[in-house]
Amino acid sequence: MTTSAKRLDSAARRAQLLDVADRVFTAHGVHAPLDLIVEMAGVGRATLYRQFPDRHMLLLALMERSAQWLATRARRLAHRDDAFFRLLDYMASRIVRSPALSDYWRTTRMSDPRFSDVYQEVLNAFAPPVARAQRAGLLHADVRADDIPLLASMLAAGLRGETDAERRQLVGRALCIVQRGLTPSAPGGCLPGTVNDLS
User: Fold this and answer.
1) Does the domain spanning 1-53 belong to CATH 1.10.10?
2) Is residue 68 exposed (0-12), middle (13-18) or buried (19+ Cβ within 10 Å)?
């Protein structure tokens, strides 16, 4: 096997382990036994620990991947005046899909140097959409990109739901309230196409 093929195989294995870890943590919480990930992924312990030496490194990798997905979406939406609200929508959907990881992320401190790069990537993704929405008159002028962790915490209040359906309903409601508060002259209802479909 060539070096490039080995790299591809390693990257694919890493992605598979992250997918499995996300499912395990969603079902059992972030303190679930790592052996569950090993078993569900069909790999040996050595394979998991080669990629992720400990639980912290695994959770950090999940956070980094989530931030990268957000940044990719931000680039795809860069031409839209409402990109900021669509990114908030996306953040709400991630909270619903990965409640354990979202709760873990919510409880980390921005001052913790282990997470500073991840937080900065999220803020960088939101900064241009914030400025564009403000120029278009869609967003209050005093909103800043570094308000995003606070907004994420507000949306994460929906994690109190006991079932997936309850979480979807609560996160959708929180999203509606947050959007109305951020939008100048917002109508009485929620912005169209943002709350009902968090798939």
Assistant:
1) yes
2) middle
